[in-house]
Amino acid sequence: MRFYGYVIVHLLFKLWRLFLKEIKPAGKIVATVACPASKSYTNRALLIAALADGISTLSNPLLSDDTKYMHLALEQFGISIKQEELAFVVSGTSGQINCPSNEISIGLAGTTMRFLTTFSALAPGTTKLTGKQRMLERPISDLLNALNQMGVNARSLKSNGCPPIEIHGGGIPGGQIKLAGGKSSQYLTSILLCAPYFKSSTTINIIGDLTSKSYIDITLDIMKDFGITIENKNYTQFYVSAGQTYRATNYTIEGDWSSASYFLAAAAITQGEMTLTGLNPDSIQGDASFLNVLEQMGCTIERSYEKIFIKGNPLRGIDINMNSMPDVVQTLAVTALFAEGKTCISGIGNLRIKETDRIGALEQELSRLGAHVESGEDFLKIRPGAYIPADIETYDDHRMAMSFALAGLKVPGIRIKNPSCVEKSFPDFFKQLEEIL
Questions:
Q1: Catalytic residue among 327, 357, 396, 428
Q2: Element (H, E) at 80
Q3: How is the chain split among helix, strand and coil, in percent rounded to 5?
């Protein structure tokens, strides 16, 4: 009986570790890290290659939950995708896709949900898209309205402007449409990615100020590499001529600056030194500007095509608009815990409709640690405090888990709940973090 009791205790301990990850404090970290590939580029490349004329090889893709959902969903539209060791081989359809026979669930993959909404309208028949609970709370009505303007019957099945959604396909007429730009750039990306296959040329007029313009830059960049020309009138109007076709391409996915931010911040927080490889120093990813943010806070940065080097120095608080790099706001917020003075982060209203209400989640968890936090509709103000051990809620948000793990490098007793949520974008995060300590 004692033996069985020991086995049960051991199994419970292993199970506990799956749901709670304790972070060990570290001294000055000195390490070299190879950064994973970009999720943004991987998911766009998969969809583009699926529409292309011919076979594309996508080298160095990110393998994560979000890209898995895109991969599996595209296969349900009849696209052949072969996963090799370091590549996806995609057999393009020249825009002639099939209608899925079953409802498609995309978990918590926001890009997959938004991108597939327009893509589904190209398929004959009716497509239904759904996901996990938080996905069913994230708005998509602006995109549905834009499709409706072109004559596509696309609707929220619960009439609440959120998934699950139903799209009646068979082709998209194109034409003149208006799209609200304030909530998510992914709505615009969804339309742009498929617009070359609309029946007529398309003009998209943006209502209000377009948020997260850097992600539109990524969309335009990869579409150009696959042979598509788009006219961009200062992010207020986009024109896509009909009759263009994506050409099959051997395409290498560049490194991910969002993922890199955690290791850059680890060096800043511990006043250590970090060398990152696999990154494009001239990348148009908005999160590449996180280097400039850390420079403003006092870090020393060296850039080259071979590597990015950062040396942490005493940090100072800053006042900054982060609208162009929303995915590193959580990284900055945790870094601000160890800076002298107040850090003010603005232009982040769209964080409230991400994997969780990230502004609310940050205020809650930063305060739990002992920081002084003030928030508004689109801002956070953070002043350092006296920090205490805490079990950090992640709200099933990968970026909450990864950013707050950094606090544990300086504050003893930090434990991350549901650490497996990092599989959404960076499955090896905790393994790589342990390797540099």
A1: 327
A2: strand 80-84
A3: 40, 25, 35
Dist. CA 171–CA 165, nearest whole Å: 17
Q: 290-336 pLDDT, tens per residue?
A: 999 999 999 999 999 999 999 999 999 999 999 999 999 999 999 99
Question: The tokens of 320 are what?
Answer: 């900054």
Structure tokens at 387: 């920090």
- Alpha carbon 57 to chain centroid distance? 22
Amino acid identity, residue 271?
Q
* Chain segment 372-397, per-residue pLDDT in tens: 999 999 999 999 999 999 999 999 99
What Cα–Cα distance (Å) separates residue 366 from each residue in 330, 359, 410, 411, 432? 10, 11, 14, 12, 24
Active site residue 217: no
How do beta strands 390-392 and 414-417 pair?
parallel
Cα separation, 132 vs 219, whole angstroms? 26
Other CB atoms within 10 Å distance of the CB of residue 391: 13
Dihedral angle of Cα 305, 310, 311, 313, to the nearest 10 degrees? 140
Backbone angles phi, psi at 78, to 5 degrees: 90, 15
| Tokens matching residue 222 | 């990869």
